[in-house]
Every structure is written in structure tokens, then in C-alpha cells.
Amino acid sequence: MVGLAFFMLGAGAYVTALFGPSLLGLWFWHQAGQRIPRWLAHLLYLPLALLLAWASGNMLFFAAHDDGEGPPGLGLALVPAIAMLLGSIVLYYGAVAAGAAGVAGAAGALLRRSKDRRTGGAEALSPDR
Predict the structure, then answer these.
(1) 36-45: buried (b, 16+ CB within 10 Å) or exposed (e) per residue?
(2) In this structure, are residues 41 and 33 in contact, taking their beta carbons and an 8 Å threshold?
(3) Rounded to whole angstroms, what are the CA distances from 71 to 13, 60, 76, 79?
């Protein structure tokens, strides 16, 4: 019975290490802006994703009774989880940067339109430019 419990702990830790950072990023992107300010959510994502991956990796090693001595079999099992962690961090902050650029671009377009309305579009036809 104890063996089954350790297997379930290890399987849950591996699934958490593999999919946890991505699901955490989705939660922060969609829900955290309603509870805390968006900028704070974006700042908190990286340390929490790293903590989640570290804790689930440690639980996996605990469940397997692996102390790091011997062949690197269990360490190689974490390579996909680390790849998913790095990919989710890159995609999350890439989306943040793209959103910020889109907001800045949209704000610039609105400012240009309001300036054209005030001048009546004569600025574009002036011989100075």
C-alpha cells in the first residue's frame, strides 16, 4: 500500500512539474487581473512558476527515494518538465510584451487620429513635411 502511495505521489509530482507552469500562466493571464493588479500578476508569475517546478521536482525525487547518487535516470525524466517550464515562461512574457506593444500601438494610433481631427488633416498636406 505504501508503494502505491509513493507511486501516486511521484506521478502527481511529475504531472505537476510538466503541466503546472503552463496552467499557472493561463490562470495568471485570465484570472489574476481580476483579483490583483495586472502588473503584480506578471511580476509574480516567474517566481511562482519556478517554485512550483522546484517543489514538484523535489516531491518526485522524494517519492522515488532518489538522493542523487548513482545513474542519472530520474534526472533525465525531468528534462521534458524543464523544457515545458522554459517554454511557458518564454510564451507568457512574450505574450505580455506583445500585449504591451499592441496597447502602445493602439494608443499611438488613437493619438494620431485625434490630432488629425483637430487639425482637419491639413498637417499631412502641408509643404513643410
Answers:
(1) eeeeebbeeb
(2) yes
(3) 21, 16, 10, 15
Which residue in the block uniquely carries the three cell numbers 516531491? 59
Measured distance CA(77)–CA(17) in Å, rounded: 11
Question: Residue 4: which of 53, 87, 88, 63 has the closest Cα?
Answer: 63
User: pTM of the full predicted structure?
Assistant: 0.72
Supply φ then ψ for residue 86, to 5 degrees: -65, -40
Reading the block at residue 87, the C-alpha cell is: 517554454
Of the pLDDT bands very low, low, confident and very high (cuts 50, 70, 90), residue 118 is low
Answer for the pair 58, 78: CB distance below 8 angstroms, yes or no.
no
To the nearest 10 degrees (0 to 180), the angle between helices 79-119 and 38-63 is: 170
